[in-house]
Write a structure and sequence with these properties.
Elements: H1 16-37, H2 41-61, H3 66-89, H4 95-150, E1 156-162, E2 168-174, H5 186-194, E3 201-206, E4 212-218, E5 227-228, E6 245-250, E7 255-258, E8 265-268, H6 275-287, E9 292-297, H7 306-313, E10 325-327, H8 330-350, H9 352-355, E11 370-375, H10 383-395, E12 401-407, H11 417-422, E13 425-429, H12 434-440, E14 458-462, E15 474-480, H13 483-493, H14 502-505, H15 516-525, H16 535-538, H17 595-602, E16 624-626, E17 629-632, H18 646-657, E18 661-663, H19 664-671, H20 675-688, E19 698-701, E20 704-710, H21 711-723
Parallel strand pairs: 5-15, 8-12, 8-13, 9-10, 9-11, 11-12
Antiparallel strand pairs: 1-2, 2-4, 3-4, 6-7, 6-15, 13-14, 14-15, 16-17, 18-20, 19-20
Helix pairs in contact: 1-3, 1-4, 2-3, 3-4, 7-13, 8-10, 18-21, 19-20
Length: 725
């Protein structure tokens, strides 16, 4: 419920007819009471005359027509005359005087209503005439401007419509068939011609018919003001995910709302652009609903999750966590992804009756909520995890499991093909290169001017409209949400959080769902004391899935296809078979990966004692390093079936023993090789079997992001070498 204000409202929020009735009632009360107290009739005449004079002055100031002024003044004088007559004869309480009073009241109410309607109609006509004159003048100017700047012939300006916000207007232009579009530099030329402010600008979009374009002109700097999020702690009404997620305001004052029921979303923005703020605004919109379960993957420290968890984990102001599941590491992200993939299959098989109705997609509600997964820093995820996210993106629409993908760059090495194709909602904050916007937005990007979104919190957005047509990207300013507001919202939204249904939880990976906070909270808060509200989620047996000895990926029991290739190899899954699972692998106690088991699995004997490069000449798989340069590298000899290069095996074992990721320089030090030569040789080895490192080869360890290698990337290359015929 919204908070009630204690301030008094002295405004007259009444209709003209009610005003006339109030005046008539006052006159009758004065006549009835004044007769008993002996009030002189001349006082009633004085009040009526004063009211008529005041009414005439007010009407003259508002420039009302003369007959309107006469009618209103006559009504005041009639009320004063009737009151004076009733006071003189002491007859206010007789049926005759009451009848005259009722007749006069009815006439006054009818006249008041009619006068106001006439005045409103006249005012609208005057406004329409002024608007038409203004629009005609602007249309002539734009016809001449387009002809002069672009040498157009045969075009017509069909209309100029101002925006309700007063921030600009839209020009509708019917283009000639020989020139259906304006040139690529039209935005810059028109903005320069009109001398528009930096926060304003020009946007050119297609009309509803071919050959028509709309030129949206923003004449005010609407991008420089900070827009506090309207969903403050004082307004905690319950919404639905079907209403979309409010993100901010367009330059014309219209609110930007994106739907994530049918479509996934893609948020892109460089560091300092306000991307994290937009993600939290989207979190606020989703958490305000009572039919959405929100989950997060953020392996760089769970920065998008911690503000929303504080009310539950630290302050104890909420009995439940606002974010249902937080994956802060690569391993936990695999568990979460497997859980969602299995849940998608379980929903498809468990809700067949709901999917067999008029719509082949589930209708979400508090008892059957949508699952919204928000993935931040997508470039930091391994190829196997990206493959699982692709599976969720591709298969979760019908059962309402959707994904919001966030990254720093809109490039092919960061965003997978499935994520780009299936994400019809796209938001691009400030980026370094205009080419990234062209890669992000499917249409209309050629006419985008990055300077139309100059500051932090500004960006471009395109999403399907009410007719399910994807609009061209338009500039907008995002709402601002602060940690203080997040804490207030988290405390208010906790009671409405829905829970997943039994079908979703009846899968093999779901057995690790209940103890998720027992695994995650110690990493997020370390020695910080936790609130008592976390005890029901942590005071239970903590289950950890066994890790695959080669890849280090948790084996949650979901069935995988060993014959998959590319990014799906060893990490893809079959969501249609949630109940079937493979037997978990045994992992030696106290170790993340078993080096002995790895050596036996790869069937690759080690060299003789001594550092790398000092083995005997009989072993052809040894890498010989002379003067800091790799001079020889090959696979196994002809009498041994192992095709995996020895350098790849050594690098994989070293990286896995280091925890799954290692910078190139550190890897070269441990292998006693030159870093530059090692990088070139390993790059060629990976390229031979078509394996690419995620994030252009950057690996983040702590707060340092440098060139390096992931154990999963090297394991994938090993598998491809072994599968090569």
């Amino acid at each position: 419920m919204a908070a009630r204000s204690s301030a008094l409202d002295w405004g007259w929020n009444t209709s003209p007819a009610v005003d006339a009735a109030l005046v008539a009632g006052g006159a009758y009360s004065v006549a009835a009471v004044g007769a008993l107290s002996g009030m002189p009739p001349v006082q009633a005449l004085t009040v009526g005359a004063a009211g008529a004079a005041a009414q005439a002055a007010a009407d003259l100031y508002q420039r009302r027509p003369g007959w309107h002024i006469t009618t209103r003044c006559a009504a005041w004088l009639a009320a004063g005359g009737w009151t004076a007559l009733a006071l003189a004869d002491h007859t206010a309480l007789t049926w005759q005087m009451a009848g005259w009073w009722a007749a006069g009241t009815a006439v006054g109410m009818t006249l008041a209503r009619g006068l106001v309607r006439a005045e409103n109609a006249a005012r609208e006509q005057r406004s329409a005439r002024r608007l038409q004159v203004w629009a005609n003048a602007r249309a002539r100017e734009w016809h001449e401007r387009l002809e002069r700047l672009f040498r157009l012939e045969g075009h017509t300006v069909d209309g100029v419509m101002p925006w309700k916000s007063g921030a600009g207007y839209t020009v509708r232009v019917a283009m000639p068939s020989a020139t259906p579009q304006l040139p690529a530099d039209a935005v810059r030329k028109l903005a320069t011609e009109l001398k528009l402010p930096r926060g304003g600008g020009i946007q050119i979009t297609d009309g509803m018919v071919y050959g028509e374009i709309h030129i949206r002109v923003t004449t005010k700097d609407v991008m420089s003001e900070e827009l506090p999020i309207p969903d403050g702690p004082d307004d905690t009404t319950v919404t639905s995910i079907y209403g979309g997620l409010p993100l901010g305001l367009q330059t014309d004052g219209a609110e930007v709302r994106v739907g994530v029921v049918d479509d996934c979303a893609l948020f892109i923005g460089q560091i300092g652009s306000g991307k994290t703020n937009v993600v939290n605004v989207a979190n606020a919109g989703a958490l305000r609903t009572n039919d959405t379960v929100v989950m997060h993957i953020d392996v760089t420290g769970a920065g998008i999750s911690l503000p929303w968890l504080r009310a539950w984990a630290v302050d104890g102001a909420s009995d439940v966590p606002l974010i249902d599941y937080v994956a802060d590491t690569e391993e936990e992200a695999h568990i979460l992804a497997d859980f969602l993939i299995a849940g998608i299959g379980a929903r498809k098989s468990g809700h067949q009756d709901l999917l067999a109705g008029e719509d082949d997609k589930l209708t979400v509600g508090p008892d059957l909520p949508e699952v919204l997964l928000v993935v931040d820093e997508i470039a930091e995820l391994s190829p196997r995890l990206l493959a699982k996210l692709d599976t969720i993106v591709n298969t979760g629409r019908a059962v309402r499991v959707r994904v919001i993908i966030c990254g720093l760059r809109a490039t092919q090495d960061v965003i997978t093909a499935a994520m780009k194709k299936q994400s019809r909602v796209r938001v691009g904050m400030r980026v370094s290169d205009p080419e990234e916007l062209a890669h992000l937005f499917p249409t209309g990007a050629a006419r985008l001017d990055p300077k139309a979104a100059p500051g932090r919190g500004c960006g471009f957005c395109c999403a399907p409209d009410a007719e399910d047509i994807v609009s061209d990207p338009a500039p907008y300013k995002a709402y601002r949400i602060t940690p203080k507001v997040i804490q207030g919202l988290a405390a208010a939204y906790g009671a409405r959080r829905p829970r997943l249904e039994a079908e979703f939880l009846d899968t093999a990976p779901a057995r690790y769902y209940a103890s998720r906070w027992g695994r995650v909270l110690p990493r997020l808060y370390k020695a910080k004391p936790l609130a008592a509200t976390t005890v029901p989620y942590t005071d239970l047996e903590i289950l950890r899935p066994p890790l695959d000895e080669v890849t280090g990926i948790p084996n949650t029991g979901i069935e995988t296809d060993a014959n998959d290739d590319g990014g799906r190899e060893g990490g893809g899954s079959k969501p249609g078979a949630p109940g079937r699972h493979t037997a978990p692998s045994a992992v030696p106690a106290g170790k993340r990966f078993g080096s002995d088991a790895l050596a036996a699995l790869l069937n690759s004997p080690r060299t003789a004692a001594g550092p790398h490069g000092e083995a005997g000449n009989g072993d052809r798989t040894v890498i010989h390093a002379q003067f800091g340069r790799v001079v020889a590298q090959s696979g196994g000899p002809a009498d041994r079936p192992d095709r995996v290069p020895r350098l790849l095996l050594d690098a994989h074992q070293t990286v896995t023993e280091a925890g799954g990721r290692l910078h190139t320089g550190d890897l070269a030090t441990r292998l006693d090789l030159d870093a530059v030569a090692l990088g070139k040789e390993l790059s060629q080895i990976l390229k031979t079997v078509g394996v690419e490192r995620p994030g252009i080869g950057s690996v983040r360890i702590g707060d340092v992001s440098k060139s390096g290698y992931l154990a999963e990337t090297l394991a994938e290359a090993i598998t491809r070498y072994r599968n090569t015929q």
